[in-house]
Amino acid sequence: MNNKPRVVSGMRPTGQLHIGHLVGALKNWTTLQDQYDCYYFVADWHALTSEYANTGGITGYALDNVTDWIAAGVDPERSTIFVQSLVPEHAELFLLLSMVVPIPWLERVPTYKEQQTQLTEKDLTTLGFLGYPLLQTADVAMYDGRFVPVGDDQVPHLELSREVVRRFNQFYGDVLVEPQPLLTPVSRLPGLDNRKMSKSYGNTIDLLDDSDAVTKKVRQMYTDPKRVRADIPGTVEGNPVFTYHDAFNPDIAEVDDLKARYRAGAVGDVEVKTKLSRAMNAVLEPMRERRREIGARPDRVREIAVEGSRRARVVAQETMARVRDAVKLRY
Ligand code: TRP
Question: Ligand 1: does its nearest atom lie under 6 Å from the Cβ of 12?
């Protein structure tokens, strides 16, 4: 029996993973495995909330992402890796939660309006999209998830989850557990051009990029625009090259030295960037190797996802039995 507290987190399979996913989620996911009983899943229904018009890529990305999770160190023996849509109980819990959640609570979640104004090419006036954070609530509550490792963008979703769970419990007794966010320690990585890192901006470094591609992308990275020459003092804070150094370079003395010389105008960008791509490739190469090994056996990855979903489903069915009892819908 596993008595460790549960952690639940998911990722939408909408594309290939990049270093933002690694630093913002995966690294944390792997560390948490020591202390927690972890449930990590492919949120394919969540992908549908915005990609419903174009669903062909989802299963491919799902298995590809799981391959990256394992390559990054998520251990299918210790953690339960599963696919949301293979555990249809999530839909049932979502439905029951929808009975008690007032629509304005969902309309008030900041990402709801934000995404509608940002993704104008998609019609996001759907019930499914409005229900996004409610489905997320079901994902977590299903496993009595106490902690949810997420980036700060997800905090409002977790807040809604807590309110919904409290309201549900008011009606039906103490059935569901209130989840807490477990914020990822490193702040968000900017993209190569210092905007938000996003596939649609073309400013990512992908986990699939080989070492030459990484070196080349780093060479083109945005730095301090004031520094047209190496002897001009530069700004370290908010400079993506140094944010990346902090995230990837384990040699703190080297990073401190580079920062000091950068501030003094005593180092060229080439040296800063060469050391950066070397540090990044040292982190990424072992993952690429594992990815090659695992990727050579796609059936194994599928098997892990299917077997994990079977295990998750056992827990989900126990939860739903308890929930149906509480709602007095047991026949
Ligand atoms: N909304 C999350 C994201 O975009 C994905 C997600 C879905 C999730 N369900 C979840 C994360 C449950 C944590 C817990 O990153």
Answer: yes
